[in-house]
Amino acid sequence: MSHNNAGFMQCSPSGVRIPVPGKIDPEKIHPEDIAYSLSNQTRFAGHTNPPMSVAEHCWRASYEAAPGHEKTAHLHDGSEYLNVDVPTPFKALLPQYVVLEAEIQQAIAIRFGIPYPFGDEVSRVDVVLLVTEIRDLMGGTEGWGFDHITPLPRRIVPMPRKLAEAMWLRRLDELEGRLGAHHFGFANRLRLLVWKLKSWIFRTPRAK
Fold this sequence. Notes:
The chain is mainly alpha-helical. It has a single domain, classed as Hypothetical protein af1432 (Orthogonal Bundle). It has nine helices and three strands. The protein has a three-stranded antiparallel beta sheet with strand order 1-2-3, with no helix packed on it. Helix 1 (31-40) packs antiparallel against helix 8 and helix 2 (54-64) packs across helix 7.
């Protein structure tokens, strides 16, 4: 995805141009563009060690959400395929960003048939994952102010970018009842096997 002075964002791989500012047509929102962009963006402005993508964060959220909320959780950061993942401390300084974020999320909600606003369950899952990521990828939760939140018991081992992209699409296909709509491929099956092995070996959290 790129932008220029013509007032649009060009998405990859579709090549669709989204007007900015302007009303977003839900029919021009493609899951492949969301998966590609979110898999290229990292959590915490790239400061996690090792890097973890926004696509993987959303994929994990869909499995932690209560029944009936899985698809909403999977798409809860979908707007960031256009307006990127801005760290929370900066959002308070960018009121127009928050407005644009809501407009994009509303269009995504229409496109994929999910509620907006997302509701308490998605917020709960988002925070639990946030704290787990801080514990496993940011050196521990001390000083973050989340002592009242219990992280997930199993350590997060991030996926490689290509796998995160493919897994995000496959999970969306599953949630929409069309599993197999996107080709997974041998290379991704191999990446998945290696990632599952690493996840099992390093399953115990290192820090609190």
